[in-house]
Amino acid sequence: MRKLGERRPSESRRGVKRILVSECKQEISSFNPLLGQYEDFTVHHGAEIFNLHRNVRSEMAGALAVFAAYPYIEVVPGTSIRGITSGGTLAKPAFRRLTGEFLDSVRAARELDGIYFSLHGSFAAETEPDIEGYLLEETRRIVGPDLPIAVSLDLHGVLTERILANCDLLTVYHTYPHVDFYETGERAARLLVHLLNKEIRPVMARVPIPALVRGDELITATGLFGQIVRKAQEMERSPGGLSAGMFIGNPFTDVPDLGSNALVVTDGEPERAVRQAMELAADFWQVHEKLQSRLVGLLESVRLAASATGRVVLTDAADATSSGASGDSNAILRALVEADFRRSTLAPIVDPPAVEAAFRAGVGARIRVTVGGVIDPRRFVPLPLEAEAVMLSNGRFHSESHGGEWNAGRTAVLKSANFVLVVTSRAVSLYDRSLFLAHGQDPARFDAVIVKSPHCQPQFFDEGAELMLNVDAPGSSSANLQSLGHRVCKRPIFPLDPNVPWTPQPQIFGG
Questions:
Q1: Which residues pair with residue 99 across a beta bridge?
Q2: Structure pTM?
Q3: Which residue intervals of 53-91 are DSSP H helices?
Q4: 105-131: buried (b, 16+ CB within 10 Å) or exposed (e) per residue?
Q5: Residues of the chain with confidence (pLDDT) below 70
Q6: Contacts of 401 (CB under 8 A, 6+ apart)
Q7: pLDDT 10s digits, 28-48
Q8: Within 13 Å, how many C-alpha atoms sit on residue 69's CB side?
Q9: pLDDT 10s digits, 194-222
Q10: Domains of the chain (ranges plus CATH)?
Q11: 193, CA 20 to 30 Å: which among 146, 270, 321, 493?
Q12: Cα separation of 170 and 265, whole Å?
């Protein structure tokens, strides 16, 4: 059997095959009260996509590298839609405009042989709970039932029947924290090439699981979840295996199909696909109760941080902007201030009025401001502070994780006693140190740092820390899932309901 990725001698003599590439990348929290707007996205068209993914390790970059290796493939660039960071539910006008531009590029493409879409899976609008499914369904209406479509998704995607019914191939991240963006795009692109050459007959099997999971056991390098993912990788690499993985959904995207899913894609073997998907699902169900966060109460976290002698990391996953939270939580900061915490502390927060006050006053000025509670006032009360404006910036910088440009809007660094706050006008992802380092603040030099991300690569914050505290704070991406108030997802579902039953019901797509 010829290995996937090997070229046949005659490949260079075949006719040109045209592949449309587009992306739509966003993850939302239904519990963030701020609706997403068109201006919260970067939108690129045509050849701009190539420049956007040059020298970065994205899914699209991985796919483009694969296509470039085949002289008979011509890439047709469509549309790139990327959230500046995760956010709230997309407003209806923004949904119409963004999806309209995406689908217009599909309509404009001519004489296509295949399509590759880089999507997320947890994108929802006021009027559409499954944007990825909508885009694929509409694309299928435009291009017809037979054109091969390959998709790559985040393992935090909500895998729906509509997504699977309207694509031929699907790959999913195998790592959390995510470090295999590029490789996931490569995998999807290779499979698409083989499908175009009629070398494979993909059959997809999924098994839905009524469980929402969070916590350290999801870290694929060390946790129980990683054992299941490695089994999926073995299935994918085996002869006749095409793709396999686990979707754990995004617990903060409250949509009808929210849950976890096992997925296996085989080459023309539906019984095998079902059997292996059932095996992954059973393994997951066996440990699902252990896949939960161990949270430390807010006041107890402050007490422990105050008594520590080494560096402390206070993880505020409840306000994780990369999970769709608002970023304006001051809950931990307030608790530290009210406890008269004396150790040097670094914290990020979103508060446009505080930034504007700093810009009006200028660097070196002392100002009285309130911070926090400007976006999600139901959860957070503004905290009054007297602070010095020590730095002002336009908020544009590059991610140390993948090199892409981020835009936090106008940004101010404020120093109030032993607290240094990096205050932004808009939310950006905080799963690495990029925001801090771009504004002259090295987290390693502080006694305590508030990290608004559930899990980061260890070298960013963990190394050298005496104490890591996963704080049970309020917020729209809290791992205390019962506190969020799900109203839309199907029930019962773990851990929102007790004694959740599960009878596996596999589904087959394609073939």
A1: none
A2: 0.92
A3: 59-68
A4: bbeebeebbbbbbbbbbbbbbeebbbb
A5: 1-14
A6: 431, 432, 434, 457
A7: 999 999 999 999 999 999 999
A8: 13
A9: 999 999 999 999 999 999 999 999 999 99
A10: 14-291+506-510 (3.40.50.2300), 296-479 (no CATH)
A11: 270
A12: 8
